[in-house]
Design a protein that fits this description.
Blueprint (H helix, E strand, L loop, with lengths): L5 H5 L15 E3 L10 H13 L10 H11 L6 E4 L2 H12 L5 E6 L4 H9 L2 E6 L17 E7 L11 H10 L4 E4 L20 E6 L12 E4 L2 H8 L9 H12 L1 H24 L11 E4 L7 H9 L2 E8 L3 E7 L3 H14 L1
Parallel strand pairs: 1-10, 3-4, 3-5, 5-6, 6-7
Antiparallel strand pairs: 2-8, 7-8, 9-11, 10-11
Helix pairs in contact: 2-8, 3-8, 4-5, 9-11
The structure holds pyridoxal-5'-phosphate.
Length: 348
């Protein structure tokens, strides 16, 4: 006999990317930043520790909302903070999608979305990307019980993007809110922040895990119109972000010079990785993220993943039913990427 809801019994659960003990691998599998975060982050954490942790944190992280609002040019009331942007996704699905209702997502994209629907006992409806990673109007078609659409932009695993104009078009036609998941947008040429004011249905989520090198901290946020934020506050845990992460995230977003310098290095290495993989015969589309999606037209890629791993380099092998497989390689430092390319060259 099971004590779980039938929806939970029926699901298998999301499996995150492998997190081996530090130092075991050159780690290029979960799109982390290879560089240490701004030094202002550890100073902010030390200052909180010096004050002590006996009090609860600010439930709405007002300090972060104020500073992020200034940096991004939005009112603090339009920001909701979360324990990683994954928590923002959880809050949204809990808020909008009930049992037997429908969540729409593109395919292939972030696998967690489907799990979030499963937890709700909801249906997920996948709309396939076209071969060139554009998305047809089927993504915005009205459908019965459709309550939320999730769209990573840039997408994972492809690293490709839809233009803000296209996203506005899709949102205008959708009968439900659209979350533009911008976990990787700091590595891209465009973003959708401006659209939030234009259409109440458009919400944008951001992560500090990748571009700010804080995956271990767990901090992300949502930008949406204030009446939406107000509703979402009812759902979140009272103290979903702790005092250390709020202070650290505020210091991180304050240091835009660090972000610009780090972004520049990562984009240069992304070019080097993309060129190297193309030379090895992989079939790449241009990436707007801090990873590169590498299917190969002829060589089986799973053995390459396994051989890389055996020699101390961990990349992500992804196999999407009905679409195909490939290696998703995070943009590490130049040395890490050179080591990866060198090994692959000896294998292909
Ligand atoms: C598309 C996408 N959205 C969100 C996340 C979650 O990021 P966070 O670390 O902020 O929870 C990831 C993490 O890999 C991702 O790939």
């Amino acid at each position: 006999m099971s004590y779980f809801r039938p929806a939970i019994d029926a699901m298998s659960g999301y499996v995150p990317g492998e997190q081996p003990p530090p130092g075991k691998f050159i780690k290029l599998n979960t799109n982390e930043n290879p560089y240490p975060a701004s030094s202002a982050v550890s100073r902010a954490i030390q200052a909180v520790l010096a004050r002590g942790l006996e009090r609860y944190p600010d439930p709405l992280a007002a300090g972060f909302r104020r500073r992020a609002g200034e940096v991004l040019g939005v009112d603090p009331d339009w920001i909701l903070c979360g324990n990683g942007s994954d928590e923002i996704l959880t809050i949204l699905t809990r808020a909008f999608v009930g049992e037997r209702q429908r969540l729409r997502l593109p395919y292939p994209s972030y696998i967690l979305y489907r799990t979030l629907a499963e937890i709700q006992g909801a249906d997920s409806e996948e709309v396939r990307f076209e071969q060139n990673w554009s998305l047809s109007d089927r993504f915005s078609a009205p459908a019965e019980n459709l309550r939320l659409a999730l769209l990573p932009n840039p997408n994972s695993p492809s690293g490709t993007m839809l233009s803000p104009e296209r996203i506005l078009e899709l949102a205008d036609r959708l009968p439900c809110p659209l979350l533009v998941d911008e976990a990787y947008v700091d590595f891209a040429d465009a973003n959708c922040l401006q659209l939030v004011a234009q259409n109440e249905k458009i919400m944008v989520s951001r992560s500090l895990s990748k571009s700010y090198a804080l995956a271990g901290l767990r901090f992300g946020f949502l930008v949406a119109q204030p009446q939406i934020i107000e509703g979402l506050v009812k759902i979140k845990d009272s103290y979903n972000c702790d005092a250390l992460s709020i202070a650290a995230a505020t210091a991180a977003i304050d240091d835009q010079a660090w972000l610009a310098a780090t972004r520049k290095k990562i984009l240069a290495t992304r070019d080097r990785l993309s060129a190297g993989m193309r030379q090895l015969g992989f079939d790449l589309v241009a990436s707007q993220a801090n990873f590169v999606w590498c299917p190969h037209p002829v060589a089986p890629v799973k053995p390459l993943y396994e051989q890389l791993k055996a020699q101390g380099i961990l990349v992500r092998y992804m196999n999407y039913a009905g679409w195909g497989d490939g290696l998703r390689i995070s943009v590490g430092s130049d040395d890490q990427i050179d080591a990866c390319l060198g090994l692959l060259k000896s294998m292909i």
